[in-house]
Every structure is written in structure tokens, then in C-alpha cells.
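Running log. JK asked me to keep both predictions on one page so they can be read side by side. First protein, sequence followed by its C-alpha cells:
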Amino acid sequence: MDDPKTAARWVSAWSTSPIDASLSESGVLDRLGVAVTDVSARTVVQLTAGGTHVRLTLSNIFGVLPLHVAACTIAIGADDARGIDPATLRTVTFGGQTHVRIGAGESCTSDAAALPVAAGQTLAVTVFYRGINAMRTIGLIGGCSHAELGNCTRRTLLHMAVPMQHTADSGAYEVIPALTEIDVLAAAGTHACVIFGDSTVANELPRLLAARLRADGIENVSVTQAAIKGDRLVADGVAAKLLGGAGVKRFARDVLAQAGADMVLVKLGANDLIHPHCQSKQGLLTPVTFAQMTAGYRALADMAHAQGMRIWFCELTPWKGYTRNLFGRGDDIQWSPEYDALRLELNAWFQGADCPADGYIPLDALADPNDPDALVPAYTTDGVHHTPAGQRALAALIPEDIFVT
């Protein structure tokens, strides 16, 4: 029998948190989903761990009808996101078959495909959906996807591909159909750290942090993403299913279930504090309390520790100047000291003996020295979300010693 200390192990090398893609709260899109008929979707992602074999997880957890996968391949990505390196093309099977029917409310993990991959390398996953399907389970961060009619799973370049991206006032949404996790058969000692949160970490942070760790000689840590824009800690998103389920509800699925994950960094809670004061959500939400929020954080810590996972809470960063301009309708909220008081109270609690986390990650270096209630102007696009410079600065503030065991 292999020694678990020296044997290769499955480790999540990329992930995205699934959301419900029904686009209205009533009508056919809410009851069924977005129609997908005889189409291929190619998604290119960057892996944060390497290994000898690859396996995929495809999800239909929000579906109300089966999802019919007729063919699936993986390959190393090309410079053009529509293309692949044909020499690396591999067929993906499911229970020994090249096709699979994923029932409504279910997910499916593929067989292992022999393909050596390295951390930082791009992987292209191409899936052909035959017949009429109702696509409801998608990710919105972490990959670049294109769609083209027909079975394109073995095509080197998609010539008539349609980009699967939506750009709104709140940022870009990278539509990733069905694919939720990619695991690699990694060297012994490799493990995964999951970043769990909202739009403040639904960006390039996992790739930036993983690259920083590798550059500093820490090569056995994968960094994956479980962030949803608009997500809240203690309650589901209101007025749009795209905002995801409550963090306390999805933690087990999106974090604990990831292969090889034994650490989680949590930066979630800003929307619990901000959204109840938005004009667009008046009558839909009531302000949360300190007790409700700390109970939510305790629930995350309890779930993590029950599985032997270490957990860190990140500082809730400033948001003065954020106005949440939706669809060009004008300011949805104005910052005030009263609205911001709970954030400061929670940040203080994170640092106290009563907090059950394994540690606290201060991010005060992101605050403007001339106005600590606001972010450094160069670090933010709108007062709350991070520019590329802000994302790099955030990645640099995560202490490396927490990754060394």
C-alpha cells in the first residue's frame, strides 16, 4: 500500500463557484434555463498546481432538466484563447464512456486523463452539448469561454466562436458553463488554499497569490477561487440569483468539497453590511446585526475545523466613495460613518480572543493614509472593487508563513 505521505494525491488546481443562471424571477428562463442546442463551449483557465493527470467536475446542480454531454476534451491552451496545442489533446471520459448524462441537481467528476500540466499553465476544456439542453449552472469568474455550433471538441481553433462574457457597470462576468473544478494528480505534500468571498476577491487574486508563492519557492500550494460577486455571508442574494446563495449555505459545497483543500481565506461580509442601505433594495433587506454576522463567521470556522481545515478571516476593507451605480441609474448608496460602524466592529472582533478563526489577515495597507475610511485611489475602480494594482497589493499582504506547514 502506498504511503500517504509520499503518494501523489488529487488536488484542486482551479475552481469557480456555481450560480443559478436563470435570468428572471419568473417565466421560462426561471423555470428552465438558457437553451443550449448542439453547441460546444471551450473554457480556458490557468492552473495553480501541476500534476501528471487531470480530472474535471461538471455541474448541473441548479438544473431542472438533464444536461447531455456528448464529448469532452482537454488540451494545453494556445496564445489565442480560442485555440489549443493539438499535440496535447486528450479525450475525457466519464465512467469509461465518452458521453454522460448529468441529472438535474447533480454533478459529475470525470475519469483521470493522462496529461502532464504545470502550475501557471493554461488548460482548455471543450465540452459538446448534444440535443436540447437548459443550461442553468454557470460560473462567472476565473476563465475565458467561447461557444461555437457543432462538435468542436477536437478542433485546433474555433473559427466562428462567440465570446461568453458580459460586461456591466459592476464589472466583467466571464460566463463558464457547467465546469466548476479541475483537479490534478499532484506530488505528495501538495495542498489547496481556497479564497472564499465576494466581488472584492472575485478577480485575479488566486492566480496572483499562487504566482507570488511559486516565485518565493513555495511550490506545493494551489490557490483556488470560491468567490461570487454580490454574495453575502448570512443570507442569499436578493433580487438576482446571480448573486449566489448565502456563504454559510454554500461553504460546504464550494470549499470543503474541493480536492486537497486544507486552508481557506475568507473575505466575505461587505454586501451584508452595504446592501440593506441601498435604495434599490429598500423593503427587501433589513440591516444585519453584529450577532448575526459573528454567528455566520463562527459557522464557517466550525465547518472548516470539523474537516481539519484551517481558516483565516481577512479584514473587511474600506468602502467610502462607493456609490453602486447600477445600469446608469445614479447613486444607489452613499457612505456614512453610521453605515460603516459595523465593519469596524467586526474587524476588531476578528483580532480578538473570541474569534474562532486560526488567524486574521490585516489589509489596512490598502486604505488611503489620508482617509482611512477609503481605499488608496490607485487600488480601486469605484471605491470598493480593486484595480489590477489593488489586486497585486492585496496578494502581497497575505503572509507566506501561513502556507508553510
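And the second, directly underneath as requested:
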Amino acid sequence: PWMFQTYVLFRPSTPRIAGEVRWLLPMPSWLLQLANRVGRRSGLASRWLRRIILTWKPHIVHTLRLNPEAWLTWQALQCISATRRPKWVVSSWGSDINVEIDLPGIRDHIEVALQHCDGFIADCRRDIGLALAAGLAASKVALEDPVPVSGGLNLDDFPAAESDHGNRNLIVIPKAYEGPYNKTVPILEALRLAEEA
């Protein structure tokens, strides 16, 4: 149960368990695909987000993911005067900067977000270097150590004996499907690391 007030662009098609949900448009579910397309083209989501920020007057806005969430947030924030604009912290989320930055049209959005944010939190050490290479000022690295969005794994908790596979077959189990990068990249990385085995 999510007990906090939530703002969405269109009325959810499934009712929420708890917490107040506010929406801009009471769109019927059969029109959602068309409404999403019109909303993207008209910048409706960024205007709605800007209205929410101006209503709430937060000191800090945190954006989780560089693509597309940080781009949406920047579209909303850039139309707020500097005196009323909250501090903006962005977090990477694994493949958003590692893989998606090379997709057509994405690099510009990520670079703009990194140039205009007030702070950056990396999902892993690799992302700090990638963010700096994409235009993030070193002074904007909010934390020297990454903060994994997943919570991370303490590798010391895994017994060393388990890494010695001997003659056993190696089985790679992919994580649950969330998106093409989340499912594929970890498998390829695991196979690369296990190549000798």
C-alpha cells in the first residue's frame, strides 16, 4: 500500500489500494494509447509536473533514471524561474547511461540533464565515469560511492567455495523481465565473466 499522495497524468485504469491519486485528465482506458501520444507531443506531462512542483514547492526534486525521467524533469524545471526552482538531483539506473546513451536522440537528453542537475548519484562506479564523460561537472557528484538502486549485493556474504565450479555445468538464470537491457546485458556480462568456466 502506497499511503502518499500521487500525481499521474491520466486516471489509472486500475484503482489504487491506498493513498490519494490525483490525475489531470479522466481518460477512459480505451483512449490511453492515443492520449499518451498526444500528451508526449504537446508536452502535457512536463507542464503537469511543473504545476505539481510549483504547488508543492519542494526544496529538492530527485529523478530516478536519466532516460526518460530526467529529460521530463528538465522540461518542467527549465520553465521555472531560477529563484523558485528547487535543487535537482538525478540518479542513474544501470543501463540508462551505459547502454541507452548511444541510442539515437537519447545522448542529447542525458547530456542536458547532467549539465543542468545540481547533483548526481550513480547506481554503480562505472556510471560516475560515464556521467563525467557525458558532461557532468565533477563538483556535481553528490556521493563518491555509488548507491545501487537495487540495494546491491554484499559479495563477502557469498562463500568462496561456490565460485569453484569444477566440472559442473554452469547455469545462468536471467532476472525477471523489465526491459531489453535489464534482461540481456546481465546475461551477456555473466557469460563473459564465466567464459573460462
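Observation for JK regarding the second prediction: The chain has seven helices and five strands.
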